[in-house]
Design goal:
By secondary structure, the protein is an alpha/beta fold. It is built from ten helices and 14 strands. The longest helix has 28 residues.
Length: 300
Amino acid sequence: MVDSGDLLFDAAIATANLSKARAKAKVIARAYKAVGVTAINVGEGDLLAGVKFLQQGIGQRLPFISANLVDSVRKKPIFTPFVIEEVSGIRIAFFGLVNPSIALASKQGKAEEVTAADPVETARQVVKELAGKADLIILLSDLGVDEDTRIAKACPGIHFILGGHEGRYVKAPYQEGETFIVQSYQKGMYVGKLTLTMEKAGLPFHDEGKAEGIQEKLNELERKIGTMQQARAKNPSPDIEKIIDRLKQDRTRLQAEIEQARQAASRDNHFLWTLVPLFSSLPEDAEVNQWIKRAGITGD
């Protein structure tokens, strides 16, 4: 389990009542510790109470990472840049990036010397450093989809970018080169599940869900063809015939595409991205509810 950032704070609450925001952040950290987490990228929203809150408080409990959040005096990373987790013999590296505007958000009136290095240049350095150390490289990003796309273009070698800064509902991954970009929506309503089948390191990945997406388009096309055929039966016309012919051509094209997608997903390395709706499928934890009550944040 990993997190792309902006885990701990709501900006409006932190601005109005920092004490309450800190209490809520501590409960979130305690829950994540109980569940077990491999890496948490430090996002813009995670620094609203300052860096020291993470370093000296809840950061001792949780594996925060950030490759480009640096001490502006020593120019050294404040948190661990990346972690490598071995799963079934596959070395998976997770590294984190935050938007360069973070330095302003993190001060909160304090004299903290914090800055964020250029994310593209940092990503290049990390990918280079991970060469030979990891079979799979995953970026936990708090940059937003546009910046994620820029990173993917500029830094070949990143297999997946798991984002969350904008809270988009991304059912199907964006693809840029051989990099796939996803997000898991907002406020913990969904968890993104990435299921990987890796036959050989170095080979590109294929999206198992692509065939499902094409099938949805094909089903919709079949409904349109059926509707137009009913219209033709009631009122035959050359225009309706042309529409039906065009729709059938589209159907033939999609049928070929879905077969290609299925064949690609059945060989080499492939993956499936799914969004699991936690708000409707997962019961609340009684113990965590008690933590929330004791922290006095039941109304949030």
